[in-house]
Structure formats: structure tokens, C-alpha cells
Amino acid sequence: MVVSYVIPILILAFVIVITQLAGLIFAQGAWIGTAYEVLARPSIIAAIAVSLLGYGYYTTTGAEADD
Known about the structure:
This protein is mainly alpha-helical. It is built from two helices and no strands. Keywords: Membrane, Transmembrane, Transmembrane helix.
């Protein structure tokens, strides 16, 4: 259940990295800065939301972590 919420966060992270990498390859410094400015905040907010959902899921269902 919670795993399905993680996929958009991973997509945001990959988009940030790929855009910054393209900026390095094509020597476009603006791409690097823009990728961070536009996508950093949504990815951090999404990561916080998923961690809270995961915490809520594991504490309310009595599920045990896979260690």
C-alpha cells in the first residue's frame, strides 16, 4: 500500500538527477539550478508525506517491519 506512494518520489528524484546531469553534459548551468529550484521542494514534501503515511500504517495495523 505505502509502496505505491514511493514511486512518485523516486520519479521526482530521477528527474532532478537526470536534468542536472544533462545540464552538466550540455554545459547549461541554468538547467542545474532550475531543476533544483522547481523539483526540490515537491520531492521533499512528498517524502515527508510518505514517511508519515508509512508510520501511520505500521503503527495502526500492527504490521512488523521486514528487518
